[in-house]
Amino acid sequence: MANLIIDIGSTALKASWCDGITLGKTFRYQGEKIMDFILSLTSKVKPEVMVLSSVRNFTPKNIQKLRTECDRLVVVDKELMSHYGLPLHLTPDRVASIVASRYLFKGRECMIFDFGTTLTVDFIDAEGRYEGGNVSLGYRTRFKSIARYSRNYPLIGAPSEAENPGNDVVSSVISGVLSGMMFEIEGYILRNPEKTAVFTGGDAIYFAKRMKNSIFAVCNLVLMGLAIIAVEYDKKDR
């Protein structure tokens, strides 16, 4: 049987069936009926290992229900974080990204940029030890914040292109947000030239194609980390 990995973030759920660390078809769901969606994935095939990473709380009743849908349920929680030598304040998706980066870039120092609702930057050394991380607003969140906290600027969706500098209200906001994030990212890379820059998350490609520096873009880094965790826990039972 295949394993099922599930990552529930602030805005969407992503899931994938996987064979070892090889990801299969990826599913995306944005809605409130999360349990119903997960159960729809397991209605025909029961996974051997199900790994759940979630920023939302699941009730004990729902956790118990998920246990009946697989041979083994693994939740990315504080116990698992301790097992991987990671601090307990990290969110589950960041834990999965670090696990995947340790595997993909073994022996390299890394900076892991996750472009989502927030922009997180996590640092690991060449032995995979966690060195700390930073959190700031994500790309789309910055546009929402400008519109919410100012009377003078409209809500702007994330554009595909940007003028630099802007020559009207809309293009000025777009250019300011994009330039600010580019300066931020490039600053990290210039300050840490010894580290391999790894981009992941929903807006990773948008920024990766604008970089002059050499970076690695791994869009499904979190899911890959969960797949690695699934393989490890599957082996424990054999």
Structure description:
- Helix content is 38%, strand content 25%.
- The mean pLDDT is 92.
- The strands form 2 sheets. Strands 3-2-1-4-5 form a 5-stranded mixed β-sheet.
- The protein starts with a strand and ends with a helix.
- The protein has helices spanning 34-42, 60-67, 78-83, 92-104, 139-149, 169-191, 204-208, 221-236, and strands at 3-8, 13-19, 22-29, 49-54, 72-75, 110-115, 118-124, 130-137, 196-200, 216-217.
- The protein folds into 2 domains: 3-87 and 223-236, ATPase, nucleotide binding domain (Nucleotidyltransferase, domain 5), CATH 3.30.420.40; 108-220, ATPase, nucleotide binding domain (Nucleotidyltransferase, domain 5, 2-Layer Sandwich), CATH 3.30.420.
- It is globular and about 60 Å long.
- The protein has 238 residues and is of the alpha/beta class.
- The longest helix is centred in the last third of the chain and has 23 residues, at 169-191.
- A hairpin with a 2-residue loop joins strand 2 and strand 3.
Considering the chains and any ligands shown, give keywords for the structure.
238 residues; alpha/beta; Nucleotidyltransferase, domain 5; 2 domains
- Shape assignment: globular
- Biggest β-sheet description: 5 strands, mixed
**Unreliable parts:** none
* Strand segment count: 10
Number of domains: 2
What is the straight-line distance between the termini?
Answer: 14 Å
As for the CATH topology of the largest domain, it is Nucleotidyltransferase, domain 5
Please work out how many helical segments DSSP would assign. Answer: 8
CATH superfamily of the largest domain: ATPase, nucleotide binding domain
Strand order of the largest sheet: 3-2-1-4-5
* SSE string, helices as H and strands as E: EEEHEHEHHEEEHHEHEH
Helicity range of the residues? 25-40%
The CATH class of the largest domain is Alpha Beta
Mean pLDDT across every amino acid position: 92
Q: What value does the Rg take, in angstroms?
A: 19 Å
What class would the helix/strand composition place it in?
A: alpha/beta
